[in-house]
Design a protein that fits this description.
Blueprint lengths: L2 H26 L4 E5 L14 H7 L2 H6 L6 E5 L3 H10 L5 E5 H9 L4 E11 L2 E5 L14 E3 L5 H12 L8 E3 L3 H9 L5 E4 L3 H6 L3 E6 L13 E8 H6 L1 H18 L5 H8 L6 H7 L5 H5 L5 H16 L9 H4 L3 H9 L18 H4 L2
Parallel strand pairs: 1-2, 1-3, 6-7, 6-8
Antiparallel strand pairs: 3-10, 4-10, 5-8, 5-9
């Protein structure tokens, strides 16, 4: 074989190698990035409000991130809340989920192999509502009456914690299980006496149909944390093992969006965007009263966030929603979060919180 033939054979081999490498990359590329969410907008609208994930979804930020790669982003919004999202994770129908702490705990406790990536939101509230014409004024007035709670969701966990702080428990009431969409009609028709719900209940109070008699926004007893629920972003183990680069890009989009959603200059713009979900901007305005955007949208897995999660695990055991304790340290994979914070230069953007959810000042955290 002469020199020209050797060169030709060499470049032919290089071409074959390059083609093979491109084919392998293409074969490993997922058909889509699939994300499960635990709610839908008012009237079944495919839009959400009130959170970082609502902003990522509503502004199609992940779609823009992966457009050049030819990887579509598929969002599945579920009326059945967290339990349905867990079914989708377990069945391999979604790769990521952003949902409430209790559902995430139940999923992990049930053996769904996920990694906890970042805080998808914190400080979310629940409200206890009665009809506007109801004689009920306090929780004690409700003892023995029909109280709706959406079991298996963060609402159940938060309601249990709030009741315990007031010396009460679920057993003091006649529990009725309904989802969020069915709860308000049942209350307005008089089929139940009170309902626990998320911020969307505020719209009915603002219209004069319902009256809020208790909420997680009230100050907690001294030395205790205000009970709120929080959202997490999780990814299936197998997806993270196959596509760590894609996981990093998803997390980076969430962290970048959290920074945008933490800027007080964007407060009204966020409320306006979220109102496209069918929930009026006035509802988000009231629900966020007294909270900074940064406090609600911090992605940090700090002491305050983890303390709420540990409490949630304890309560889940007590309520027999999981069978054994969950090793939180083994669940968390914050490498993607730390890299995103570093690369986006956002290490100092959010103030970490302590186990009571209070900000840790630089002086306090100094050795």
């Amino acid at each position: 074989m002469n020199h020209h033939q050797l060169c030709g054979a060499f470049w032919h081999a290089c071409l074959l190698l390059a083609v093979t490498w491109v084919a392998l990359i293409a074969a490993d590329k997922p058909a889509a990035i699939r994300i499960g969410l635990p709610q839908v907008g008012a009237g079944g609208r495919p839009l959400l409000g009130g959170s970082v994930v609502a902003t990522v979804h509503g502004r199609k930020l992940l779609e823009a991130e992966f457009k050049a790669d030819g990887i579509p982003v598929e969002w599945t919004l579920n009326k059945g809340a967290g339990p349905v999202v867990n079914e989708q994770l377990a069945g391999g129908l979604v790769d990521f989920a952003c949902y409430g702490d209790l559902a995430a705990i139940i999923g992990r406790g049930g053996g769904i192999p996920t990694r906890l990536l970042l805080a998808g939101g914190r400080g979310s509230n629940i409200y206890l509502a009665v009809r506007a014409d109801s004689p009920v004024r306090t929780l004690d007035n409700l003892k023995g009456k029909r109280l709706v709670v959406f079991k298996g969701t963060a609402i159940q966990l938060l309601a249990a914690r709030l009741l315990a702080q007031r010396g009460l428990s679920e057993g003091d009431f006649r529990s009725i299980v309904l989802d969020n969409s069915a709860a308000v009609p049942a209350l307005l028709s008089g089929d139940v006496d009170a309902i626990w719900g998320i911020n969307t209940i505020l719209e009915f109070q603002q219209r004069g149909d319902l009256r809020i008699i208790a909420s997680s926004r009230e100050p907690p007893p001294a030395g205790q944390a205000r009970p709120t629920f929080q959202n997490v972003l999780v990814v299936k183990d197998d997806f993270a093992a196959r596509h760590p680069d894609l996981v990093q890009r998803v997390v980076t989009v969430f962290v970048r969006t959290a920074a945008l959603a933490s800027d007080e200059a964007n407060r009204e713009d966020l409320f306006t965007q979220w109102a496209e979900s069918g929930t009026p901007a006035a509802v988000f305005r009231e629900d966020f009263t007294g909270d900074t955007l940064a406090a609600r949208h911090s992605p940090l897995l700090d002491a305050g966030f983890l303390a709420v999660f540990k409490t949630g695990i304890d309560w889940s055991l007590q309520l027999k929603l999981i069978r054994a304790p969950i090793a939180l340290d083994a669940w968390i994979d914050d490498r993607y979060l730390q890299r995103a914070l570093r690369e986006l230069k956002l290490n100092e953007r959010w103030t970490p919180t302590d186990v009571l959810g209070q900000p840790i000042s630089a002086a306090k955290s100094a050795p």
